[in-house]
Design goal:
Length: about 300
């Protein structure tokens, strides 16, 4: 077996299609299909069952999968040993994150890491959903809930705080808000209810608010609505310093605490390069959250 064929096998298994594997590997799908056929002929077994839903590993494919992953880890380890001689991080690391942390924390934290490691490329995938690390959608991910299944390691990064907030422009023209009962009749900004991908993000539901006049699955869109005077919404304390004129409302009565976790594939904990990046990332996030919450 050749590593190049196993690499294509892993990509097809993770993407569940030849086109997805080809896009991941920058390879023509027809070439990927021929390489899979060659591997199947060499092994004397069918590795994928094709259906309208895509390519699913057969029993033989499932047996090959852990061996291919071990080969992948061996290649990563060899590359790391060679690159690690410089004492700096290098190569590419892809980080998945909800767009709140991706917009307001990761840019400055990751910029500082890359400044110290100029041969390192960091990619931030900012999507309001969970990431599948087993399919290598990302090398590691920031989450707001610890996953309970899969071959994953979970590390607490930091708690963070959120408060109800609005722009002074909105508050100047809206009825006064002195207690939680006064929120009735005010325009609320938040998530699209049926697109909340994690129960920890159901902030308004926790407050008993069932109508959201301006809703988006993006924290950045919600934040901009609040900043422009669209209404009231829950805001990360670490985002407040970037919005002049936005202030907390009912700070003593409405205060939420959530937690960020760093989630990694268990096999990657054997890679010193990934461990060093994870340490730099978590240390940087903790410092930045403490700094920005102190300003808010």
């Amino acid at each position: 077996m050749h590593w190049d064929d196993l690499k294509i096998f892993l990509a097809v298994a993770r993407e569940e299609s030849l086109s997805g594997a080809g896009k991941r590997l920058k390879l023509d799908p027809a070439t990927a299909g021929r390489r899979i056929a060659r591997l199947e002929e060499e092994l004397g077994a069918t590795l994928f069952a094709k259906s309208p839903q895509g390519y699913a590993p057969t029993e033989a494919g499932q047996r090959l999968l852990p061996h291919a992953e071990l080969a992948e880890q061996a290649i990563f380890s060899a590359e790391e040993d060679i690159r690690g001689q410089s004492g700096q991080l290098s190569g590419q690391i892809r980080l998945g994150a909800p767009d709140g942390v991706a917009n307001f924390l990761l840019p400055q934290v990751c910029s500082a890491i890359v400044e110290r490691n100029p041969d390192l490329d960091v990619q931030i995938v900012a999507l309001p959903r969970l990431f599948n690390l087993s399919r290598r959608e990302a090398d590691m991910a920031i989450t707001v809930s610890p996953p309970t299944a899969g071959r994953l390691t979970v590390q607490k990064v930091s708690d963070y705080r959120l408060h109800l907030a609005a722009s002074q422009r909105y508050l100047d023209r809206a009825p006064p808000i002195e207690r939680t009962a006064d929120l009735r009749g005010h325009r609320m900004i938040g998530y699209i209810p049926d697109m909340i991908f994690d129960k920890e993000l159901d902030y308004l539901g926790e407050l008993g608010i069932d109508r959201v006049s301006l809703a988006s699955n993006s924290v950045a869109v919600q934040f901009n609505w609040i900043r422009q005077g669209g209404g009231l919404g829950i805001v990360h304390d670490f985002a407040l310093p970037s919005a002049k004129g936005v202030r907390k409302v009912l700070e003593g009565a409405i205060s939420l605490t959530r937690t960020f976790y760093l989630v990694r594939h268990v096999d990657d904990t054997r890679l010193e390069r990934m461990n060093r990046f994870a340490t730099a990332l978590t240390d940087g996030l903790r410092r930045e959250i403490a700094r920005l919450e102190g300003v808010a």
